[in-house]
Amino acid sequence: MTIPVFPRNFFYNYFVIFQIDCMKKLLFGPLFICFLFSCNPDPGSTLNAEIPGYVPVYASFEDISQITVENARPTAHAGKIYAFGSFIFQNDLNEGIHIIDNSDRNNPKKVAFLKVPLSTEIAVKGNFLYTNNLDDLVVFDISNASQPTLVNRVKKVFPQFNQDYPPFQNVYFECADPSKGIVVRWEQKNIKSPTCRR
């Protein structure tokens, strides 16, 4: 039987080629993976690209503190209700209170709207209706239920929520600017990035 004879440098060359092959795999493998993951960049990293997000809607302190009795209107965001005699008071979140004549229970009618910006709570005791105007407590005499009269305001009764962020998680939004007023709500729109993310 003939034993094959290898050149002196055969094993040396084979070992060197093996090392080079391993280095290529170690070096170019991670680079290829990085390339794959970089194909879908974070939308927020693209300058001036429009992406779905939220923008703040502002109001001044003067606008928020304006309380008026207005004509009846449709309910936009129904909140808590309170029965008082033949009347029902229904909170329209962040807008005010609907005054409903319920003397005919088969045919209740809205008779007026008490505009109280950022009102979210409502209670009645005796002839007085209590609600919030942002973080102030406001009290109305409802002896004449269809024409409530503001009789008292107590400042800073309710804790004010942080309105610097929209009430959602993992969303893009336009950063709030305190110089423009108080953020009263957030609206969904296409916004330009870069912007904030929560």
If you had to describe this structure to a student in words, what would you say it looks like?
This protein is of the alpha+beta class. A 5-stranded antiparallel beta sheet has the order 2-6-5-4-3, with no helix packed on it. Strands 7-8-9-10 form a 4-stranded antiparallel beta sheet, with no helix packed on it. A two-stranded antiparallel sheet has the order 1-12. The radius of gyration is 33 Å and the shape is elongated. The chain has 2 domains: 43-58 and 161-197, no CATH class; 59-154, no CATH class. 16% of the residues are buried. A hairpin with a 7-residue loop joins strand 9 and strand 10. The chain has helices at residues 10-37, 61-64; strands at residues 50-59, 68-70, 78-84, 87-92, 96-101, 109-115, 122-125, 128-133, 136-141, 149-154, 172-173, 182-192, 196-197. It contains 2 helices and 13 strands; from the N terminus they run αβαββββββββββββ. The model is unreliable at 31-45 (pLDDT under 50). It starts with 9 loop residues before the first helix and ends with a strand.
From the spread of the alpha carbons, the general shape counts as elongated
Strand content: 35-45%
N-to-C series of helices and strands: HEHEEEEEEEEEEEE
Q: Structural class of the helices, strands and pairings? A: alpha+beta
Number of strands: 13
- Total number of helices: 2
Radius of gyration: 33 Å
Mean of residue pLDDT values: 80
Low-confidence region ranges: 31-45
Main sheet properties: 5 strands, antiparallel
**Percentage of helical residues?**
10-25%
The structural domain count equals 2
- Largest beta sheet: what is the strand line-up? 2-6-5-4-3
| Terminal Cα span | 77 Å
